[in-house]
Amino acid sequence: KQWYQRRVAITAGIGTCFGYWIGASLFFFGLAYFCDTNLSPIEVLSLCGYGLFGTLLCMGLSTLLITSASNLFFYATWGVLGVSSAVRMGYVFLDRTAVRKQGLTVAVVVASVHLLFILYLKFVYHKTYEAAAKINPIHVR
What we know:
By secondary structure, the chain is an all-alpha fold. 84% of the residues lie in helices and 0% in strands.
């Protein structure tokens, strides 16, 4: 039964990240289209995919290295890795938009959605982790 639970959790995590990658890319492309940003759909998919690398590092490091109940390390990695990838994504959208006001709007929305996704993953993961600890406290660290 535990193998099945782990498989479901991993599949849900992968599905969530791929869903974000495709869904956010479509949203970002639509926003870029309406704000006259010069980015193709493939470029938006690539930017969103590369932005997920910062998310992977942030979540991975905070999961592997946190030994206490403190969230300080997560917020530090979120502040460094998450913000840097979000700023990079936003900067590309800003740079490719002809009108700076529209470019700034697109950049802020893209960076905000990306950072909020990292927070979403953090809180959903901890809710799932705490529920698993209540069900089977022996196998959860």
